[in-house]
Structures are given as structure tokens and as C-alpha cells.
Write a structure and sequence with these properties.
Layout lengths: L1 E5 L7 E4 L9 H13 L4 E4 L16 H14 L4 E4 L9 H6 L3 E11 L2 E5 L10 H10 L2 H8 L3 H24 L9 H11 L3 E4 L6 E6 L2 E5 L14 E6 L2 E6 L2
Parallel strand pairs: 1-5, 2-3, 3-4, 4-5, 6-7, 7-9
Antiparallel strand pairs: 2-10, 5-6, 8-9, 10-11
Length: 254
Amino acid sequence: MIRHLQAPPAWRRLAFVSDLHLGPDTPNTLAAFERLLGSLQADALFILGDLFEAWVGDDALDLAYAQRVARALMASGRQRPQYFMAGNRDFLVGDTLAQAGAFQRVDELLTLDAWGDRFLVAHGDAQCLDDAGYQAFRAQVRQPAWQQAFLQRPLDERLAQAAQMRDASRQAQAQQQHEGLPFADPDADLCRQLLNTAGARMFIHGHTHRPGCFSLGQGLSRLCLSDWDLDHGGAARAECLYLGPEGIQRDALM
């Protein structure tokens, strides 16, 4: 699994997306992703996790929506390198999907060197230390023994359990919002520590669904990608972030 990537000198534009949360109930979001892949003007594509609302194992490729995603990625992969980083919803993506979607899997902390600068790239969930409940859950489900036992269950059971966990997460978030409690952001001290250790100046991530560029002090910054949702009401969101030697560009796709 790739932990460090050196951009070739010919690369002038990198595309980043995150938190599309694709599933059988996201036809509009999936169609927007297909349009992006079909028209993307970039030398490489980075998918920073939660491409799927839930990925319960690579045998889910039998599902119609997953086949559409794989076909679109395969076509895009003929045009450019593609890199996928696991998120909190799709950490069970494996080699079978990677081959079907023509992408390479990268480590949960990727250092990216481009244009004489270094960037640190992550999904962002592991850095949200204030979300203690999630961190305990994450520690459990990232254990190889847990994953092996889960993957041995029938596909329909895994899909049902994923739906239950998704509903519980949504209820917890709604309760948190009702009580006016702040949602966790990546811990600033941890981000500075990771950046200094990596020799990077910018931490690029998704996960929190709160896009923007935030100063961490000491000349360091945190760049958060937008999530996508064109199916569930509320404000429509679908964005690709581009990074090049001239800086950052956000492209809304609605």
C-alpha cells in the first residue's frame, strides 16, 4: 500500500474528492460523479475515503450501483492514475474493487510531494480525537480479527448490519445537533505534530463535511474537502478540489 507519492514533473493538476457516500439511494450523486469522471481535466485523481455510504466487502460488486461506480472508475483510470484512501465507511475496500475500478490503494496517511512542496493527505477520521465514541468504534472495526469475522457472514447480513450502524450514527448526529454540541474537527495539536513529523505544511482531508482552509499556526494549515449529496434534500453539495503549482481551486459540480 502506497505511503509516499512523488508527483512526476509533468503533473500540473491534481483532483481530490471525498465523502460521496454512494449507495443504491444516491442516483443523482452517482450520476454527478460519473459526469465528473467523464470530463475530468487532471493528471491524477485522489479519492479520500467514504466513496461509499457503506462498503461491506468486495463481493458487494455484485450490486448494480457498485458496478456502475467500478465502470466509471475503470474508464477514468485509462486516462490518469487514480488513488483511493479508505474512510470510516469503506475501510473494507480490497484488491478486487481496486482492480475493477483501476485505482491504487494508499495508506491512511499519505505524503505527497509536488512542485517542491510536501502535503500530508488523510481521510481525517483518525485525527478527530474529541469524537471518543467513534474512536473506540474505529479501534474495534480496524482489527483484522473483527474484519475477518464480519466478512465471513453472508452479504445480506453485512448489508443489514451496515444499515443499522448508519441509522445509529445519523440518530447520534441529530441528537448532538439538537443539543447544540459541536462536531469534532481534526485535533489541531495532532495535525501540527503529524505535519512537522512529515515535513509538510498542509494537511488535506475530508470526513467532517465542513470544507475550508484553516490555519493551524506555525505556517501550517488544514484543507478540508466538501462532502457530496444531491439526493436527500437540503443544500446540494458536490465539489472537486484541484491542486496545482498556482494553488487551490474548488469546483462546484451542481
